[in-house]
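Researcher: Quick one. two chains, 724 residues in total.
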Amino acid sequence: MTGTRVRRTDTLLGLAAWLVGLLFLLPFAWMVLTSLHSEADAATNPPSVAAPLTLQGYREFFGAGTGVSPWPPLVNSLTASVLSTLLVLGLATPAAYALSVRPVRRWTDTLFFFLSTKMLPAVAGLLPLYLIAQNTGLLDNIWLLVILYTSMNLPIAVWMMRSFLAEVPQEILEAAAIDGAGLPTVLLRVLAPVAAPGLAATALISFIFSWNELLFARVLTGVVAGTAPVFLTGFVTSQGLFLAKVCAAAVCVSLPVLVAGFAAQDKLVQGLSLGAVK
Amino acid sequence: MTPKRALAVGAALLTTLGLTSCSGAGGSATAHSINVLMVNNPQMADLQKLTAENFTKSTGITVNFTVLPENDVRSKITQDFSAQSAQYDVATISNYETPIFAKNGWLAPLTPRADADPAFDQNDVLPAIRTSLTVDGQMYAEPFYGESSFLMYRKDVFAAKQLAMPDRPTWQQVAALAAQTDGAEPGMKGICLRGQPGWGELTAPLTTVVNTMGGTWFDQDWHAQLTSPAFKQATSFYVGLVRDHGEAGAPQAGFTECLTNMEQGKTAMWYDATSAAGALESSGSPVAGKIGYVPAPVERTTGSGWLFTWAWGLQKASHHQDDAWKFISWASGKGYEQLVGSQLGWSRVPAGKRTSTYATPQYLASASAFAEPTLKALQSADPANPGVQPRPAPGIQFVGIPEFEDLGTQVSQQISSAIAGRITVDQALSAGQALAEKTAAAHAKQ
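Model:
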C-alpha cells in the first residue's frame, strides 16, 4: 500500500517535472517556429501555427537582405565572453580559496564587500564609464568589454566558488600537505579536480552573463566592437515587419550558450548541487 | 596537468587570442572610410545593400554602417553627437532633432558644401523639408526621404458598401465611415489608428487631430493646454474612435501593426504616414491597387498632415567631413533614386524629398496611386503654423523642444492607458497637464 502510494507520488512528481520543463521550453519552441515562418505569417494575429515554413529569416540574418555579415559581432561576443570568463576563473579561484579553505581575517566582511559592488545599478555607472572610455580611447574597443565583463561577473564567481571550495574536505588538503605538496600543486592537482563541477558551473554562468549583456555593449561599442545582442536588436524596425528575422537571429545568437550548456550538463548538475547538502 | 590537457588549454587560448586579433580592437574610421549610424527602416536596408557595389566602387570610400531600432538610434546619436566623440561621422536625424542639434553646435553646416556641388541641386529639395532642416539660413541635414500623413482606405470595400470617400474628409465624416465599414468583411475593423505609446507613435497622429480641432500642447506664452476644451475634445474623439471602431490590441498597435492590418484586410481605413503607401502598393502586397488616398482629415484647419524626414547629419567633430559629404550627396541625390528605381523597383525609391522625383515618369508609373496625394500633403504641411493659434516652437506632430521626446512619450502612455480602458481621458490629460506644466515653466523662465 505504502509502496503504491510512493510510486503514484513519483509518477505525479515526474509528470509535474515534465510539465514545468515543457513550460520552460515553450517560449523557445515558439521562437524557433516563428523564425521558420514568413514575415507576414509571423505577424498574423492570432498566430498561425500551421503556416508554411521558410528559411528566409535565417537568410536575412546571414545578410541576404543587406549584405551585412553577422560574423564580426558573433566573434566579438565570443572574444569578450571567453576572455572575461577565463579572467574571472583565474581571479575568482584564488580569492575563493582565501575565503574558504584558508580564510583570511574578517573574511565575511570581505565577502560582503565583493557582493556590495553588485548593489550599484549598472545604469548608474554608464555615463562615467562612457566618459572614461572616451578619454582613454577605449570606446568601441573589445578589450573594454573584456575588462567590464570580468569586473561585473567576478563578485558572483567569487561567491559561487567560495561555496564550492567550502565543500572540499579539509582532510584531502591536509593529506596532500603531509605528502609535501605546495600551494600550486594543491590548487591544480587536488583542489581543481574536486572543484571541477563548481568551476564548470561558474564558467558557464559567467559566459552566459557576458554573452547576453546588452546595456554596456550598446552604449560603449559601435562599428568595430559591436556584439551579437546589439546586432540582434538591429533587426527591429518601427516601419515594417521583423518578427521572423528577429526570431531567427535570436535562435542563432542563443546557440553558443545552448551548446555550452549541453556540453557542461553533467558538471553543471554536480556543480549546482554542490553545497546543497550540509 | 597532463601534457595532453596542457596542449588543449594552450590551443584554446591561442584560438581566443586569434579571435581577438580579428575582432573589434579599434575605434574610429580609418582614412577613406566613414562610420554611419542609422535607423533600421526598409529604405536604409536598401541603402546598405547598394552602397558597396555602387558608392564604394566609384569613390573608394568604405562605409561602415551601424543599424539600430528608432529609440536606440536616437539615444546613441544624442550620446555620440553631444559628446562630439566622432565615433560616427554621419547619422540619421529627423527634422525634430536637426534644429536642436544645430543650435547646440553638434552639426557641421551643409549649405556651403551643397552650394559648391551643383549636381546635388539643393533647390530641388521640397521647400517644406528644406525649411525644416534649416537653422539661421544654413541647412544642417540633407533629407534621405520625407513623409507627411494621409488617410488610406479600401476602395473595393467602400464600393461594396456603396460608400463614397470625400475628396477632403473631416474627422466627423471619417468617424461615420468607420462605423459603416466596421465589420464590412469578416474580422475587418473600420479604422486603424496608432495606440502604442511613444512620441513617434501615438503622439504623432493624435497631435495632428488636436491641431485641426483647435488644440495645442502650449500656447504662445508657454502655458500647458492639455486640459483645454479643444485638446480634451480631440483626445476624447481619438480614443473613442479607436475604442469603438479601431483595431484589436490598439494600445500596442503602432505603424507596423497597422500596416499588417491593412495588408491582411483587417481594417477599412488607416490614417498614417505617406511612406506606408510604397509598401501597400508593392508587387507582393495583397491590397495593391485596392487603396485610395485622400488628405489628412481636418476640422478647423485647411490641412493637418504632418511633416517628417529622416535626414543625414554630419557630426561637427568628424575627421572625415569630405568623404562624409560625398556619401550624403550620393544618398540624398537624384542619382540614388534612379539607382534604387532601376535595381530594386520604383516603389522602393526613398521619395518625399525632391520635386524632381514627382516628375520622373518611371516613378509616377509605379506610384500613380499615391504620388500626387503625397506631394500635395508634403507641399501643404506648415510646421510654423499647424493649428488655429500661434505656437511657441515649430513642429506639426511634435513640439520642437528637447523635452518633447520625454513629455510626448509620457503623455502617450497615459492616453494609451485610456485607449485600453484602464483610465479615463480626463485622468490621462490631467496627468499629462502636470507633466507639461513642468516643461512649460522651464521654458517660460527662459
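The CA atoms of residues 99 and 105 of chain A lie 9 Å apart.
Researcher: Thanks, that's what I needed.
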